[in-house]
Amino acid sequence: MVYEALIAPFAEFGFLRRALVGCLAISLSAPPLGVFLMLRRMSLTGDVLAHGILPGVALGFVVAGLWLPALALGGLLAGLVVALGAGALARATGGREDAALTGLYLTALAAGVTLISWRGSAVELTQLLFGSVLGVDDAALLLMGGAATATLAFLAIAWRPLILECFDPSFAQAVGLRGSVWHLGLLALAVLNLVAALQAVGSLMAVGLMMLPAIAARHLARELGGMVLAAVGIAVAATLVGLLASYHLDVPSGPTIVLVASAFWVIALVAGPVDGLLARHRPRRHLEG
Description:
Number of strands: 0
Order of helices and strands: HHHHHHHHHHHHHHH
Distance between the termini: 48 Å
Structural class: mainly alpha
Helix content: over 70%
Largest sheet: none
Shape: globular
Radius of gyration: 20 Å
């Protein structure tokens, strides 16, 4: 019974094994980026970038159909335009960067859906927006593995600068740390991970695997290292449970993985030791800090 429920789907079906390997790669790289975005109070930026890649994906689809290299290149370029364009517009006009991001991502989302609907069917639109385990082929695996490798290498180099800029930006500026370079690198890798997750969980669901484990980890650990480990663990568990649930219940994989990650977030929000609802309302002992 246990074998049939937990192991047989991956043992019998190659597409599920590919989806598992690819999503596990993204689960190792995307949640740490989500933790840094959360600490910078940029949690919604991931959602903006996920919408921002859509017109590039749509143009790639119009030109080459569901050919992954075209989709990935278009999505990466569009995401970088949105990420960098918002800052450029804010500096040029004196406005707020979040306002520019809002305008760009709403425009990008509408343009992307319109382009895909114009040249594709409802099935293809759903696949691009919400993903499909059937779409995870060898090329998608290489993209996911490459994104994970690049992200982990960047974090190994930029770990200390990113921490310093998150917690003490004034000191970072005083010692000559070029925070904008690390910030742009963080956003670029966030775009890369969102594009890499496109085939498995779709453009609109990819941000869930990045941000939900991160915001759940906030209630499980106080130190940054603990948050990152908890976020990765939650993403890995959500991937395993989500793929199995999507197989047994015959529902889309992307939304199912995100729903499982949402369930972990709710559990952490309620029962987490760090500012969880139960912990905050638990009666404290006399003189307890």
